[in-house]
Write a structure and sequence with these properties.
- The structure is a single chain.
- 39% of the residues lie in helices and 14% in strands.
- It is α/β, with parallel strands linked by helices.
- The chain folds into two domains: 193 residues, Glycogen Phosphorylase B (Rossmann fold, 3-Layer(aba) Sandwich); 162 residues, Rossmann fold.
- Strands 3-2-1-4-5-6-7 form a seven-stranded parallel sheet, with helices on both faces.
- Helix 1 crosses helix 12 and helix 6 crosses helix 8.
- The radius of gyration is 21 Å and the shape is globular.
């Protein structure tokens, strides 16, 4: 049987902060590597030229175990060339898979594009104008170029169909969550010591931007801090984004970016994870935390499938009540820990990768049959 030849467009991994899309790309490659050789496709990676970090030591992307096709162009120039159709995908592949809306003309191959969300349409004020403009233009290019679309949740599938994609061309495949390393408890403890956090603490993980709703979260925390057994800190992990800044509050600690081992440790050590975005396409941090048995307070999200203590992200009182309950109620915590572990076990990257291979094989077979999907 001929193996499907797949070119994965992983330009996101060239960025200094790859974010959730980068986690998806790495997790997908991890899952592909866990498949039996007979069911794995032939995969190569496509990205811009390596930056200074890649000079002298080879291409960092090669560490994922797949051949890398690096352009001579730097990232911004390459993506502009893709946007304008100046550069097409190299020949010799059955499928080009874009891990985001940054797509390119696929040439003789079939293009599969992962669409993580269309939230700039649902909540435009939560995106800067330039970001909304790029995302909308990129969506229209993907609708013209792609044969199939992969989305992480039914809600995204509905939004994409409303935007013009044929429902039969959309496949719902959730994200995995078993990509973090074992907790580096020593590094985690040292990090907390540097931050001045002693004893139990609450945790939130995500980019500091309006959509993540951190202003309401910190307000809710302020309301319940005095009702906790002790004034436990709220540790905020994640890069700085844009928009309204979160005002410093007593007990609120900004940790910034942390290493994967430190993040695993924080998940394992925290009293709970609070993740209350206004809107989300999937919601990865809650299921990352569930891997470690951490109780989660969250907005209704596709990722958690009812395994979190759900609160209304528009209501600070609802968030505050959820934080206090999950922080202190032993029975609720035990229920959430069990439900979370079950949910996390369903989201293994090997299973997610196998579903991607099915889409790739399907679209490749259709292409060889002489028609578009």
């Amino acid at each position: 049987m001929t193996r499907t030849r797949v070119l994965m467009v992983v330009e996101q991994l060239r960025r200094s902060t790859p974010g959730g899309i980068g986690t998806y790309a790495r997790g997908l490659m991890q899952g592909l590597g866990e498949l039996d050789p007979g069911e794995a496709p032939e995969v190569e990676l496509l990205a811009s030229r390596p930056g200074r970090r890649g000079s002298g030591g080879g291409d960092p992307l090669a560490a994922h175990g797949y051949p890398v096709r690096s352009s001579v162009l730097p990232g911004p120039a390459l993506t502009r060339a893709w946007d304008r159709g100046v550069l097409r995908a190299p020949t010799g592949f059955d499928v080009v898979h874009a891990v985001s809306l940054a797509t390119l003309e696929p040439g003789d191959a079939a293009l599969v594009s992962t669409v993580h969300d269309l939230l700039w349409r649902r909540l435009p004020d939560a995106y800067p104008p330039r970001g909304r403009t790029w995302h909308e233009a990129a969506l229209q290019r993907a609708l013209r170029r792609a044969e199939r679309f992969i989305v992480p949740a039914e809600e995204v599938a509905s939004d994409l169909e409303e935007a013009g994609a044929p429902r039969g061309a959309i496949r719902v495949i959730p994200m995995g969550c078993d990509h973090l390393p074992p907790p580096d408890l020593e590094a985690g403890a040292a990090l907390l010591e540097r931050l001045g956090v002693h004893g139990p603490f609450l945790l939130s993980v995500g980019t500091l931007e309006p959509r993540k709703n951190l202003v309401r979260l910190t307000e809710a925390y302020r309301r319940i801090r005095g009702s906790l057994p002790e004034p436990w800190s709220l540790v905020l992990v994640g890069p700085t984004g844009w928009g309204e800044r979160v005002n410093p509050e007593p007990g609120v600690v900004f940790a910034g970016m942390v290493s994967p081992g430190e993040l695993s440790a924080l998940y394992a050590m925290t009293r709970l994870l609070a993740y209350v975005p206004l809107i989300e396409g999937f919601g990865l941090p809650p299921v990352e935390a569930m891997v470690f048995g951490t109780p989660v307070v969250a907005s209704p999200l596709p990722s958690t499938a009812g395994a979190a203590f759900e609160v209304d992200p528009q209501d600070s009182d609802s968030i505050a009540s959820g934080l206090l309950t999950v922080a202190t109620d032993t029975a609720v915590r035990a229920r959430l820990e069990l439900a979370g572990r079950h949910r996390a076990a369903e989201l293994r990257w090997s299973v997610i990768a196998r579903s991607h291979v099915s889409v790739w094989d399907e679209v490749a077979a259709a292409k060889h049959g002489g028609h578009r999907g």
